[in-house]
Amino acid sequence: MSELEHKLKQLFEQGVVEETAKQRISELKEIERIIPQMKKEKQLINLLKLYKALGNKNRLLILWLIINGVRCACEIEHLLNLSQSTVSHHINTLVEVGAIESIKSGKWNLVKSSDFEYSKELFIKLIEKIFE
């Protein structure tokens, strides 16, 4: 009996899992078969980009700033005390993952939230958008 099978048997006997070790081993073999392809999936890569984009405090603050409407990049620069190039970089990153929309109006760079509400559903909708 393999070490994994032994551990899974113990988990079953202790009532931690409902499936027998044999059932779980069978399931794991199927998962092992598909993981290499999943690692290459564009959706998984896009999900990773989304999490990376949202893993920055300034980008989260930018999202918070535009909850109630359109903001000029100059407002974001002022409120967050960031340089124009830094704000531009953050805006481009958020636009790339679909979290916000950028509006160019002459020399002005405006940003607004995408067409969905900012709430706990925001992240769910962003993730669902990736898998469409």
The N- and C-terminal alpha carbons lie at a distance of 42 Å
CATH class of the largest domain: Mainly Alpha
In the CATH hierarchy, the architecture of the largest domain is Orthogonal Bundle
Tell me the Rg in angstroms. Answer: 22 Å
The number of helical segments is 7
- How many beta-strand runs? 3
Question: Which class do the helix and strand fractions yield?
Answer: mainly alpha
- Order of strands in the sheet with most strands: 1-3-2
CATH superfamily of the largest domain: Winged helix-like DNA-binding domain superfamily/Winged helix DNA-binding domain
Features:
132 residues, mainly alpha, Arc Repressor Mutant, subunit A, 2 domains, 3-stranded antiparallel β-sheet, 7 helices, 3 strands
Outline the structure in words:
The protein has a three-stranded antiparallel beta sheet with strand order 1-3-2. By secondary structure, it is mainly alpha-helical. The chain contains seven helices and three strands. It has two domains: 3-40, no CATH class; 43-130, Winged helix-like DNA-binding domain superfamily/Winged helix DNA-binding domain (Arc Repressor Mutant, subunit A), CATH 1.10.10. It is elongated and about 70 Å long.
